[in-house]
Amino acid sequence: MLVDNHQRKINYLRLAVTDRCNLRCNYCMPAEGIDFVKNDRLLTIDELSRLSAILVSLGIDKIRITGGEPFVRKDLMQLIRQLSNMKGLNDISITTNATLIGPYIDKLKSLGIKNINVSLDAIDKDTFERITRRDQYDTVHNNLLRLITEGFNVRINFIALEHQNTQDILPVLELAKHYKVSVRFLEEMPFNGGSKSFQKIKWDYKHILAHIKSAYPDYYRLPSPKTSTSINYKIPGFKGTFGVIPSFSRTFCGSCNRLRISATGDVITCLYAKASHNLRDIMRATGSGEKIKEQVLLAVGNRAKTGFEAQEKYKSVFSNSMTSIGG
Ligand code: SAM
Fold first, then answer.
1. Ligand 1 center to residue 322 CA distance, Å?
2. In the 3-class helix/strand/coil scheme, how is the chain assigned residue by residue?
3. Fewest 10 Å CB contacts: which of 49, 81, 176, 317?
4. Which pLDDT score, from 0 to 100, does residue 83 have?
């Protein structure tokens, strides 16, 4: 079992498979993108699979595949196939912008993948295109509806962005009225690759909740797992649910069970921390599983207690982009 220096059990790995993305969301990176890494610095599928097996042997039982955009990687399904056969791994989930997932939906279903998070920051097409800087709304919308009707457990992640998409909060929530989905509203975080300055947010989870309350005063709170980052609610009469994720307010650090591995093999123990160890170099230099375990244990044994503590220690962390960290 992986336990950190604050006695938190770590069983959830967020595994980034690339830092590249086919969208250019303005709160994530500049229009020209970031300095994406060269292909030979990305973990190969075999390395990703081997690393996952080592982490599963240490106690990870849930892996979320993220990026960059995971489906930008043409060999992604090979990894998912290998993970789906991994003993001890109980849950494989994917976070995607849903632009490229269409051709893989049947295969994902046959491999037993159930949980898919779709990032969607607008229900209005023009707003979507302004934020993502790409003309992909129809594809995303179609794929989202296909995922829902095919029976995947779909969660929609919507980042509340002041002056950009808050007029879409109530309209996007309508999706939960008609479909069995969870619409989750996230606070914006400072990891935008330097595309804009960032001090504080107006649309924190309390503000989002007050806004929803003005339209739906009868919503009520649902029980959530202890390690959940989202606080979940139900509106009477709605098929689905909604949630808020205080990712900038950081109210959930006390029960954090997550570890992140970037697409280049960096171990990241907190979104607000800098990577302390790189597993790709060790894997390529020695091939030793034991050495990799050692580094993971070192990183996990030296975790900040909260995102605020991490931010204090690693002041320059705000220059990162979420596309490199893995979201
Ligand atoms: N491409 C995939 C996707 O769109 O879901 C996975 C990677 S993306 C970096 C993961 C998540 O990070 C997305 O939901 C995205 O909206 C979120 N994200 C990116 N930059 C963010 C920021 N500055 N603040 C909050 N969330 C951010």
1. 6
2. CEECCCCCEECEEEEECCCCCCCCCCCCCCCCCCCCCCHHHCCCHHHHHHHHHHHHHHCCCEEEEECCCHHHCCCHHHHHHHHHCCCCCCEEEEEECCCCCHHHHHHHHHCCCCEEEEECCCCCHHHHHHHHCCCCHHHHHHHHHHHHHCCCEEEEEEEECCCCCHHHHHHHHHHHHHCCCEEEEEECCCCECCCCCCCCCCCCHHHHHHHHHHHCCCCEECCCCCCCCCEEEECCCCCCEEEEECCCCCCCHHHCCEEEECCCCEEECCCCCCCCEEHHHHHHHHCCHHHHHHHHHHHHCCCCCCHHHHHHHCHHHHHCEHHHHCC
3. 81
4. 98
Identify the pLDDT of residue 51. Answer: 97
Closest residue by Cα to atom 17, ligand 1, is 327
Comparing 276 with 171, which gets the higher pLDDT?
Answer: 171
Give me the chain's average pLDDT, please.
96
Residue 319 pLDDT grade (very low, low, confident, very high; cuts 50, 70, 90): confident
C-alpha 44 to ligand 1 mean position (Å): 22
Parallel, antiparallel, or unpaired: how do β-strands 266-268 and 231-234 relate?
unpaired
Question: Going by C-beta distance under 8 Å and a sequence separation of 6 or more, which residues neighbour residue 40?
Answer: none
Q: What's the order of all strands across the beta sheet hosting 277-278?
A: 220-221, 231-234, 241-245, 182-187, 153-160, 115-119, 91-96, 62-66, 12-16, 258-261, 266-268, 277-278
**Residue owning the nearest CA to atom 5 of ligand 1:** 96
